[in-house]
Give the backbone structure.
Amino acid sequence: MSHTERMPRTRTYLMCPPEHFTVEYAINPWMDTTAPVDPVLALKQWQMLHDTLAELGHQVHVLDPQPGLPDMVFAANGAFSVDGTVYGARFKHPQRAAEAAFHQLFYAQGAWRFADPAFVNEGEGDFAYLPNAYGGLILAGYGFRTDPAAHAEAQEILGRPVVSLKLVDPAYYHLDTALAALDDRNVTYFPDAFSPASQRVLSQLFPDAVLADRADAEAFGLNLVSDGRNVVLNTEAAGMADKVRAAGYTPVTVDLSELKRGGGSVKCAVAELRP
């Protein structure tokens, strides 16, 4: 594909403002309970991300934040939707368990078909969807959060083939810290986050993938949101911005330094809604 053919597709997103965001517990290697979060800065940075997506022409719905759920800002984890069907989340850690019900309430207000999960899964944290790859392909991560049995469950509920990918580095505990869809058929990923067998699967499925390095991953450069042309990623991930630019995409940077304290960046804060 020539670079001039990279066309954006209008998306619909769900976000939740970090009004109650703190780092009071550590459920991933990035969370440091000794370093206080600046709540005003976190909200300002979140608003900039929200406004950036809206200015790119996308519709952004907002979920009401709830006291006592500081990680609700990471809206990607609350569910995973494909063609109007929603596979609900079931969080691994009790600190986040109550978030799932608020996401379910959001979908209950629309014309969505909602499926309760029997197995632990953390929504788009561990699921990615490529509608034009192999007729519609779901990539699914496991190893730290999502139960591998959720992958078969998602396939039955969503009616799309699911490819299981094993994550092996605890720093990249969710798929969305190690892999991202750049458009409807191609991805970028950090090979070392995956088992050798999963690396072979990815190289076979996506021979033209943009490969990231450890510095990109450590800067949360793979935790991005793309509309097929505009790739929104955090300011710190300068090397990743260069890579997507070289591949013909347009990097759009937003500073999310405060959210990184919770172990998330752009993608963690944004769920894609696929009616």
The mean pLDDT is 95. The two ends are 27 Å apart (CA to CA). Residues 9-273 form a domain with the L-arginine/glycine Amidinotransferase; Chain A fold (CATH 3.75.10.10). The chain is about 25% helix and 20% strand.
